[in-house]
What we know:
The protein is an alpha+beta fold.
Amino acid sequence: xxxxxxxxxxxxxxxxxxxxxxxxxxxxxxxxxxxxxxxxxxxxxxxxxxxxxxxxxxxxxxxxxxxxxxxxxxxxxxxxxxxxxxxxxxxxxxxxxxxxxxxxxxxxxxxxxxxxxxxxxxxxxxxxxxxxxxxxxxxxxxxxxxxxxxxxxxxxxxxxxxxxxxxxxxxxxxxxxxxxx
Length: 181
């Protein structure tokens, strides 16, 4: 098994060789405006997948796929000469889904922009449900709450005290026999 650096070098060499062959040597009229986008080689260097895109219609993509299938033998022999390794990898051509994926992402972003503009237009005349700035700031005095009694709050995490008149502290169940003492 080859290391990943060697597999990457082999893939780059295949990419260059296939692109050069498609540009100059292969003269099939079915071959459309093709771009080799990526080449992936297995770890044992036995199989190579060549990803490509075709500018044009679906018919041109089908014709280009047929032209690549018919030229696979010639391309593989040229790749074997260019690589100079003992076993030439088998070549498989795969139409790259990258342009389709990129188009769907661009469509989603365009829809998000339209939604953002619609929301911004709706928010222009709106007012806040409460205060414009609902947060307290350090320079403001805290508002006194008439429901709070400062004597009931424990100080610095201390346990609540028990008043003889009020019984056990709120929220805690008295220990058995604690009221008798």
